[in-house]
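We both want to read discrete structure tokens more fluently, so let's practise on a single case. Would you write everything just below, so we can both look at the same thing?
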Amino acid sequence: MIEITFTVEDIDYSDRLDSQLPLVFETLSKNGDLNPALKLACKTPEATTKIVKGVLKAMNKNQKEKLAVTIVNSQKERLMRKLNNLAADYGIVGKVTSCTVTKK
């Protein structure tokens, strides 16, 4: 087995998280980071977008990093599948079988 670790720094959270608003909303809702009144106000995609963007704007860098880690971990099966496909495209035989993202 080979373990490969990627370190990611200087992420532009506003642009990257904005492109994943449905996942951001779902993650915030599951973690209890979104006020129930705000969840109730999210009856339309437009309202959801405005509210989630407001929440993201109010978060500090540490909170955004934790949210990004949660979102990436929720998508790890998809990420591993894409990595396996990319490796196969380059003739690398093997299979990525686990993926864990942590905040340090």
Remarks:
- The chain has a mean pLDDT of 76.
- The first helix runs from residue 13 to 18.
